[in-house]
Amino acid sequence: MFSLEGITTSVQDWLFMKFNPTMALAMECVIVILLSISLFAILGLILVLMERKVAAHIQIRLGPNRVGPGGMFQTVADTLKLIMKEGLVPDKADKFLFNLAPFVVMMVGMLLLAPIAFAKNFQIWDINIGVLYISAVSSLSVIGILMAGWASNNKYSLLGAMRSGAQIVSYELSAGFAVLTIVVLTGSLQLSEIVKAQENGWWIFKGHIPALIAFVLYIIAVTAETNRAPFDLAEAESELTAGFHTEYSGMRFALFFLAEYINIFIVCAIGATLFFGGWMPLHIGNWEAFNHIMDYIPSSVWFMGKTFFLIFLIMWFRWTFPRLRVDQLLNLEWKYLLPISLFNLLLVAIIAILGWHF
Amino acid sequence: MTNEEIKEYISSLAPAATYDETGEWLNILVEPTALKPLMANLRTGKMQMNYLFCVTCVDFKTHLTMVYHLSATTHRQSIVIKANVNRDTPVIETVCDIWRTAEFLEREVFEMFGVQFTNHPDLRKLILEDDFKGFPLRKDFEDPINMIKL
Amino acid sequence: MYNQTEIIKDTSELGADGELVINMGPQHPATHGVLHLVVTLNGETIKKIEPHLGFIHRSIEKMCESLTYRQFIYVTSRMDYLSSHINNLGCALLVEKGMQIEVPERAKYIRVILSELTRIASHELWLGAMAMDLGAFTPFFYAFREREMITDIMEDTCGARLTMNYIVPGGLMYDLHPDFQKKVKAFITQFKSKVTEYEDLVTNNIIFQSRTKGVGILSAEDAISYGCTGPVARASGVSCDIRKIYPYEVYDKVEFDEVIETAGDSFARYIVRVKEMNQSIRIIEQLIDNIPEGDFVGKTKNVLKLPKGEFYSRVETARGEFGVYVVSEGGTTPHRIKFRSPGFSNLSVLNHIAAGGMIGDLMASMGTLDLVIPDIDR
User: Fold this and answer.
1) Are residues C25 and C153 in the same domain?
2) Is the peptide bond before C26 cis (omega within 30 degrees of 0)?
3) Does A touch B (3+ CB pairs < 8 Å)?
4) C202 chain-A contacts, CB cut-off 8 A
5) What is the pLDDT of residues C21-30, one digit of tens each?
6) Which residues, other chains included, contact A262 with Cβ-Cβ below 8 Å and sequence gap of 6+?
7) Which of A194, A329, B38, C66 is 20 to 30 A off residue A212, Cα-Cα?
8) Which domain holds residue C33?
9) Contact A322/C207, CB-based, under 8 Å?
């Protein structure tokens, strides 16, 4: 049976057989870096195409359909165009920060890739404080956005960056509390442990109502955290032209654009891990035959399927809802989502202590 | 109110007014100095003309005529108030404190005909660029680049 | 590395009390044209909005002074390009009124049907564009699906999709397309079945409601004082429908309601326009089967000369009261012509309703004023 675990094990065995352990580790690092960069590129291409196709379907259009079969190479062509475009730097911009900002945003996305379990025993770094690591690193992206907005020396950018700062810092709380719900249920901060705990049922089913509430909160919060509509106030093209990346062009713009989609992928991957069991197949109680058939589907397919389902959900939001106003956005977080999160955490703590979950 | 009653009423406010009933509505020609008090009275007095729907100016080559179309949302009777102003130094008092819509309309007349509105809060060019010379809607306006003489 | 003092110097250009002046336009996604708004902000709150116009001013009034009474009608299509047919109608009515030209009944019916179709098309475009201003993209495509049917009907009938130029003084330029009635009926069926989609997607959307309710409130007194007309004034409770007050063509023969809301906020303006589309459908339904047979154009002289005097005619466009004021010296061209455009007056109210709100509110207010920039600039 195809499994990513088998490939990694055989590669590792071969490396350790041929080279001394230090050399082998160094080579493994290089392979991982190359793989994660290529994953980024491929994901960017796929997600942009997916967004356009989903949007087109919702808006009774066809979407890209000229370049390649079904428009499959449209994003490749777009990327080529962006690479060849001149990356303008505004005259009075703070050039160092202006150039650094897209890379900061990008790096945050790359760092977040580390603890995600893509398949069974297929994980870059199974850190024992995985959830904590994710919460800590994901809030760094706001620095990149603030940097971009400030360095552009553009009033629209500055407004967008300020909005984004307020928004990401606020919604980080709800996202954190939603994640904590699952941590309380599992009793571990390690992502592999969280996945393992869902062997006999995903938390969204096992965790009663609190897990469901936490999932809804999580989806709302991460939509806001990734600056996606209806919370795309940082960009808000009808108000601030393009918000914090108004002055960016060429490849720097492409990095922001790519980072947006990578962030979506990562938050959806984490959401899938926490609530839908990550790579764990769908197991129902003691239906042995059913569980066995489900096991035949590779774990990477399970993981990607769940992640892409969540990504579709977030895209669906974007093409349905109008944008919130900035005060309404903060009201929603501080007056509604945060109290609900706190209450939900209390509820889940009671359930976990009394052992009411399955 | 019939035209006769309106005439009587306006004569009591502006004795020098002259009337013209050939058109669709009653036209009242007043002195520019008498315009502002008359307008204020038309708005607040018994006519209650609360709706100023058109302010413009006409260049008759000998003089400029300010034209105000007034109506009321209650009785729907329309009258036209006119005032002739000097072509060289056209000055008339603003009515934009009576009807807010006059603010923009008078700014347009100011730049297109050069009529100076005294007491206007913000009399600047609205449509043309700030350093534009001449008054485009006057009959003697010449623009050698954009205008084609037939 | 960077020079810190340089950055600090730049921020010191902000106004004294932390004011931030931003230029919205002439190139900005929400102004839908080349409108330039100088917006003074305090944080996200708007302190003052100052419109600067004239980026597409073509001086149509001056142009018309050298065009004959047959020609000048077609220039007005380029003013409010979304209600071009109704603008043409206003001008034709003025010439017909001034010269006492009899218009055949058939022409009157067709003019009214096309006016109402134009109104629906204009409101459809507004609906999509306004939803886009608020960040919802999808309604734009839904609205354009129906609008496309209307522009197709226009194309069959007049040969143009936007600037139709179908009206001549005395009637119409040519007769109807044979498929006209069939296509209009198909459009009515389609529109009625799809109007619920707008309700689901926009009207009942909680975010849309919270963005528009209580935003940009305009009182009835202010609406009259600022000279607002059309849906903007009617949303504030001012009855100002020219079709009802001064009926022209066959509007006195058809039954329809003047839609009036009293809230005066952006949501009321939205509701008025959506309901007006339904009223327009109602008018078309009453007329479409009863178009009388006969001539489509009355008998006119070849050279039209308006008698000496002053003439004024007004029609209800999709944006409000469109007035034409002509001073004639008795020649073949007008001595002075003035277009009272609804957009100009509606724009003047923008500072009044949007100052004090937030940037997001400005989009809602500006969107519901339904500004068409060529109409404002003329």
Assistant:
1) no
2) yes
3) no
4) 322
5) 888 878 888 7
6) A40, A43, A44, A106, A109
7) A329
8) 4-50
9) yes
Quote the longest CA-to-CA distance of chain A: 67
The pLDDT of A299-319, averaged and rounded, is: 88
- CB contact A326 to C (< 8 Å): yes
Residues B132, B120, B14: CA angle, nearest 5 degrees: 120
Query: Taking CB atoms and an 8 Å limit, are C225 and B50 in contact across chains?
Result: yes
Is C377 part of the contact surface with chain B (CB cutoff 8 Å)? yes
**Within-domain flag for A131:** yes
Does B46 score more than 50 pLDDT?
Answer: yes
Residues C96 and C35 in one domain: no
Question: Which residue from C238, C309, C340 is facing B53, i.e. has the nearest CB?
Answer: C340
Report yes or no: C245 at the B interface, CB cutoff 8 Å. yes
Instruction: Say yes or no to pLDDT of C9 above 70.
Output: no
Contact A262, A40 (CB under 8 A): yes
Q: Verify whether the Cβ–Cβ distance B103 to C348 is below 8 Å.
A: yes
- The two tokens of residue A245 are 């990346």
DSSP labels, A136-199: HHHTTHHHHHHHHHHHTT-HHHHHHHHHHHHHHHHHHHHHHHHHHHHHHHHT---HHHHHHTTT
Whether residues C180 and C323 fall in one domain: yes
Residue C94, in any domain of the structure = yes
Question: Could you give the CA distance from residue A295 to residue B14 in angstroms, rounded to a whole number?
Answer: 97
Within-domain flag for C61: no
Q: Taking all residues of chain C, what is their mean pLDDT, rounded to a whole number? A: 85
Do residues A166 and A248 touch, judged by C-beta distance below 8 A? no
> What is the least distance, in Å, from the CA of C141 to any CA of chain B?
34
Strand order in the sheet with C309-316: C309-316, C321-328, C336-340
Complex ipTM above 0.90?
no
What value does the mean pLDDT take over residues A62-66?
86
Is the CB of residue A9 less than 8 Å away from at least one CB of chain C? no
Q: Looking at the domain assignment, is residue C197 inside a domain?
A: yes
Establish if B129 belongs to a structural domain.
no
Mutant choice from A146, A238, A246, A326 vs C, greatest count of C C-beta within 10 A: A238
Q: Which of A74-83, A292-301, C162-171 has the lowest mean pLDDT?
A: A292-301
A-chain residue closest to C44, CA distance: A159
Looking up residue C307, the CATH number of its domain turns out to be 1.10.645.10
Contact C238 B73 (CB under 8 A): yes
Instruction: Kindly give the residue spans of alpha helices, DSSP state H, lying in chain C.
Output: 4-11, 60-64, 72-75, 84-99, 105-133, 138-158, 180-198, 206-212, 220-225, 230-234, 242-245, 266-288, 342-348, 350-354, 359-369, 373-377
Q: Which SS3 state, helix, strand or coil, does residue C51 take?
A: strand
Mark yes or no for CB contact B104/C57 under 8 Å. no
Q: What share of chain B is helix, strand, coil (3-state, %, to 5)?
A: 25, 25, 50
Half-sphere exposure of C245 (CA within 13 A, CB side): 21
Size of interface A-C (CB pairs under 8 A): 94
Torsion angle defined by CA atoms of residues C342, C344, C349 and C350, in that order, rounded to the nearest 10 degrees: 120
The count of structural domains within chain B is 1
CA distances to A151, B43, B118 from B97, rounded to whole Å, are 45, 11, 12
DSSP letter, residue A86: -
Distance, CA of C323 to CA of C342 (rounded, Å)? 8
CA distance C312 to chain B (A): 8
Domain boundaries, position B98: 3-118
Q: Which residues of chain A does C129 touch, with a Cβ-Cβ cutoff of 8 Å?
A: none
A193 at interface of C, judged by CB pairs closer than 8 A: no
Q: Are residues C28 and C85 in the same domain?
A: no
A142-165 CB burial, b ≥16 within 10 A, e <16: bebbbbbbbbbbbbbbbbbbbbbb
Q: Could you tell me which chain C residue has the CA closest to the CA of B101?
A: C226
In percent, the amount of chain C with pLDDT more than 70 equals: 96
Contact predicate C312/C328, CB 8 Å: no
| CATH number for the domain that contains residue B23 | 3.30.460.80
